[in-house]
Amino acid sequence: MMTKIVQGQGFRGVINYILDQKKGTEILDSDGVMLDDPEAIIESFNFQTELNPRFRQN
Predict the structure, then answer these.
(1) pTM for this structure?
(2) What pLDDT digit, counting tens, does each position of 11-39 carry?
(3) Minimal CA–CA distance to 34: which of 26, 42, 23?
(4) What percentage of the chain carries pLDDT values higher than 70?
(5) Could you tell me if residue 56 is inside a domain?
(6) Residue 25's pLDDT is what?
(7) Distance from the Cα of residue 5 to its chain's centroid
């Protein structure tokens, strides 16, 4: 299988892709990420990017 790597605009797409019920994935470990629901995970990532001065939006 060949994969096509694309750059997204935010964390929403990647979190929804990873947590897709059809894939049967599960989160094994987390540190500093709220795991209540997908929206909480996305907000945790967004908050952490605001704390990183090296991160920039394109």
Answers:
(1) 0.65
(2) 888 888 888 888 888 888 888 888 888 89
(3) 42
(4) 86
(5) no
(6) 81
(7) 15
51 is written with which tokens?
């704390």
Per-position DSSP letters for the chain, written without gaps between them: --------SSHHHHHHHHT-GGGT------SS---SSHHHHHHHHHHHHHH-TT----
Domain annotation covers residue 46 = yes
Can you give the pLDDT at residue 40? Answer: 92
How many residues in the chain?
A: 58
Query: Cα separation of 42 and 39, whole Å?
Result: 5
With respect to residue 5, please indicate whether it lies within any of the assigned structural domains: no
